[in-house]
Amino acid sequence: MKKCAFLLTVFFVFPAPAHAMHIMEGFLPVGWSVFWTLAAAPFVWLGFGAVSRLFAEKPGYKMLLAVCGAYIFVLSALKMPSVTGSSSHPTGVGLGAVLFGPAVMVVLSGIVLLFQAILLAHGGISTLGANVISMGVAGPLLAYGAYRLGVRAGLSRTMAVFAAAFTGSLATYIATSLQLALAFPMETGGIAASFARFAGIFALTQAPLAVCEGILTVIIFNVLLNYNREEVQLLLRTGKEAA
Amino acid sequence: MNLFDRYANTGALKAVHPGEKVCFAAACLLLALFFSSNHVSVAVFLIMSAVLLGRAGVPFRLYGKLVLMPFFFLIPGCLAVALVTLPAAGTAFFVLPFFSPAVGITAQSLALAVTILLRSLAAVFCLYFLALTTPFNDLAWVMRKARTPEAVVELAALTYRFIFVLADTGARIYTAQASRLGFTSAGNAFKSLGGLAAGLYLWAYHRSRLLTFALEARCYHGRFPVLDNGFAPSAGNRLAIAGTVVLLTVMGLVF
Fold first, then answer.
1. For chain A, how many structural domains are there in total?
2. Which of A28, A68, A195, A199 could form a disulfide with A32 if both were Cys (CB 3.0 to 4.6 A apart)?
3. What's the rounded Cα separation, in Å, for the pair A123 and B65?
4. Is A174 inside any structural domain?
């Protein structure tokens, strides 16, 4: 109850951060910037290997991938109506993971994050590695996992897609909170307490956002299936091959 | 969408060698991160502001927005850094009500939050400098010179091109929907946005196929060879960059 009161205070004083959870340029200490860049490198390398194989097999794949990158960029710039009344933006992590598979999403999110940094100044160059890990690795992997699990457990496609988008959005935010907690542990309580404070402050905006993104992704997916069943299914197969 | 690209392509520093601009931004960014001292951060912030307003011709109105924008992340982010569990009562100058292990702001945590705030602001201004003076095509040129794998540069260049195509289409669909009362309620807005995103995806897919056909008809083999326009290096600029680096390094070591 006390926590609720505190969280509500914070919430009304500070409206939703306008954009998806990207760690800002310069926010991480230099050591952690280097660490996350090195940590992201093997994933990007693997993702790029998977993508290159597809490039060689299908000549049109590079164009498709570029268009999908641009699509995620534009999608993340859409203003989504949020339950709390403030506007927020979808991350596109869940939709991307279901449509293209997690391996491709590493590459796509790397490129999208680069353009978000240099065209919109969201995120940053020094924090690119950390953001690739949260938005390109943790989010899509868990979203894809949730989707596959949902399909296997016999959930309807709608529920599985909702689970994927919800999980992807939430996992991205949890990973970011964890990265911030690791970089700024508290003197008393250490990393765990620090995680609680970052997660607590951002949860207010991110939890309703994840629900909204889930709903939106389901609507998008259903429209896509209704109008272009063949192509979406072709894409789902390609994503599985790449993964 | 208000992209920085417009300013990069029309600004006064467009003709400057992109390598010099990248070096300037990267050097200031690295020094600000490395020293992480308030003096260096403020110095970087002031230098970047002066260059943006003075030489790059950034309008004051845009500059004001640039200063305010990072605070959407910085206010909750730095607040989270400043709030700590207090080891003992009396050490904090601000204590939150209602918490059983006392939570508040100490002089130490506030100092850390301020350092992070200033460092982030300095770093973001380095990014602004790069974004507002260097068009992506010039960055791609630098990436090629730095031996980035060709496939990465190609993919980035294609993505860059499609961002504008899709943003334009998306904006048209949005206008069409809004003029038909598509965003009058939250329910309507979800339905409209879903339609917009799905329609945009189908359009994007269609465009990618058209581009593939067009390129294959022109013997595409995985590379877009373009003319290298070349940029004239400037001794003055290099001297100024070196001077800034020396100044910041001395500041970082002294303070």
1. 1
2. A28
3. 17
4. yes
